[in-house]
Amino acid sequence: MQNSRHFLIASLRTVLPYAVFGSIWIWGSDYLLLLFTRDPEIISDLSMLKGWIFMVVTSILLFFLVLGRLKAYQGIHDKLDERQQEYEEFLFATSHHLRSPLVTISGFANEIARYSQENSSSHSQELIDYSSRIQHGVRQMEGILKSMTRLHRNLRERPNPEPLETEKIIRSIFQSLPHDNPPSTLHIVGKLPSVFADSRHFRILTQEIIFNSLQHRNKDSVITIKVRGETNHGIATIFFEDNGPGFVMDNEDEIFQPILRKQSLQDLGNIRMGLAIALRCARWNSGNLKISTLPSQGTTVEVQLPKK
User: Which of 15, 126, 148, 195 is an S-S bond match for 305, by CB 3.0 to 4.6 Å?
Assistant: First the structure.
């Protein structure tokens, strides 16, 4: 509501001076013209001249009015850029300095587990379990910090779109991610369409989608990710389908929020803001991301990006 009022006031500040000047010109020039002459031919010629003068003067007036508005918005934009830069600096510094205490915490947890194993007592197993939970929490924090630093490092600059070979990138991302036993498989169906997007953004998008499938899996089950694609009206759509457990999706928008979902100790040990990051990478490249899932029927992530 406040933004709408702001835009309305800004629009009125541009339109009202033009409307006031136009009204005064039309009324005043016609009045002076009738005082000058009553000859119809002269009035016709002067009316045409008056119209041309009105067009030139109002064009100059509109130019300076719009220029003033643009300068005002440019000042606001510069302040936003300055605040964004400050935020990124604090984000990077925070994520960097948090790593040191995490290493300390992890070290103490390892010592607790080692001491409990070497000195058996009635509380040894309980201490070992506590140590495992601490280590799991450390890995969760490390996953969050990795997401934050990756965003800071790779997403600061504006997208630089280029034609990308999607199949090659997807295969390399899949091979670079950790795979538990039993091993996961990647199955690419047919020829995937190329996309026109920023290479860094597309790699992050792909990594987060595949990692999400590998992370949320049934214990001791083989996860298969099937990738296929299609092209329609200049838009390349790539489907990532997995045979994971799926879930009940009450609200699709909630899945793409940068929140941390509850994980089990059987997960890979990293919590990432995966699909939230993936969606933003797609939108920053004039694309979109959709998801469909059902319990026990797997999950399908649909990525839409421009094709050139």
Answer: 195
